[in-house]
Automatic annotation (TrEMBL), chains A, B:
It comes from the Bacteria. The keyword Isomerase applies. It is an enzyme of class 5 (isomerase). The gene is maiA. PROSITE patterns: GST_CTER, GST_NTER. Belongs to the GST superfamily. Zeta family. Residues 1-83 form the GST N-terminal domain. One of its GO terms (molecular function) is maleylacetoacetate isomerase activity. Coiled coil: none annotated. Its EC number is 5.2.1.2. This is Maleylacetoacetate isomerase. It holds the Pfam family GST_N_3. Keywords: Isomerase. Residues 88-216 form the GST C-terminal domain.
Length: 218, 218
């Protein structure tokens, strides 16, 4: 399978972790989201994904899948072992909700196209852009911290003692928060889970700085 | 089951459609998102959903589920007939991606809390807020229109000739676009599917203006 990715894309990072947790091989097809005015915006990639976003996945039959959570659910259905979702319908709903807190209500507000639109057409300053970024991280992380610290089903990971779908979303989002120097001391449970995740090879191998297209400049 | 909802919330609207498509009964527990400074922001509701967003669902065992797509996937697993997702893993991935285009990449940018933040802390004018709204609708709808008009698996509905998960997301998003007077003539496929959906009782009963908490003022 062929993953259209960018080293710093947190949505692509989620999918890389899922591949690694399932011990599935994939080929990286990196796109540079800044160079050439954004390679994801070019005609060639629009034929692959009309949304002009990474990741996209070309599966073995040649079909293209888009949207990181849909791709991970595909991997879960196609390659169920090890599972990234728990066994019961209620538990699965809880884990999906944690993932969607990040994938629907934090990340889309803070991704590259939105940050560019704020300082471009909206005319905000760099400082206002950073305040915006921090506001939506805090909104989401306060709720996640409350949910995970009060929820008896959280363990070493977001759900129990095995990493899963919610962890695939949490670790990239914390990476992104650190990149923007967001203080994280109010989120001890999130940071504890992040640490447990990054101790695993599956997460470590998926880190942005370990990707073939990683750059050393910040 | 008890659905925390607001008549105009498009995320709650998705879940109402899913309940109706599955012929499942539910109780409405309306919250007013504007009155009292926003009832979803109060202490009582934060105990139910720390994210302070609707919808949330209290299921029969008393557990609370959040996030509209996680709730719909729960209903799909618990009450599989009629199905809202297709039979094959590839088709399921496509339908989930359509739903996530809306639920991750359009709606979260345009919901109430974000629109308020733009004219509040960001200091944008009402006109800039409207441009923002329209920009993200167009970004998402252009991609959806391209995908659905070129995709041979779209039929009367987003996938084939039976309504499903993607339709549960599309119809509320178009409702919201109309509310903000967004021109829709460039999206004939989306409008055709919307019309087919709204001809069904399941969608019609879920319309905002048919909810117990609907108001006549615009």
């Amino acid at each position: 399978m062929d993953l259209y990715t960018y080293w710093r894309s947190t949505a692509a990072y989620r999918v890389r972790i899922a591949f690694n947790l399932k011990n599935l091989p994939y080929q990286s097809s990196p796109l540079h989201l800044v160079r050439d005015g954004g390679q994801q915006l070019g005609e060639a990639y629009q034929q692959i994904n009309p949304q002009k976003l990474v990741p996209a996945l070309r599966v073995e039959k040649g079909e293209i899948l888009t949207q990181s959570l849909a791709i991970i659910e595909y991997l879960e259905e196609q390659y169920p072992d090890p599972a990234l979702l728990p066994a019961t319908t209620i538990e699965r709903a809880h884990v999906r909700a944690l993932a969607q807190n990040i994938a629907c209500d934090i990340h889309p507000l803070n991704n590259l196209r939105v940050l560019k639109y704020l300082t471009g057409p909206c005319g905000l300053s760099k400082e206002q852009q950073t305040q915006w970024y921090r506001h939506w991280i805090d909104e989401g992380f306060v709720a996640l911290e409350a949910t995970l610290s009060q929820n008896s089903s959280a363990g070493d990971f977001c759900h129990g003692d095995n990493p899963g779908l919610a962890d695939c979303c949490l670790v990239p989002q914390i990476y992104n928060a650190r990149r923007f120097s967001i203080p994280l001391e109010n989120y001890p449970t999130l940071c504890r889970i992040e640490k447990n995740c990054l101790a695993l090879t599956a997460f470590d191998k998926a880190r942005p700085e370990k990707q073939p297209d990683a750059e050393t400049a910040s």
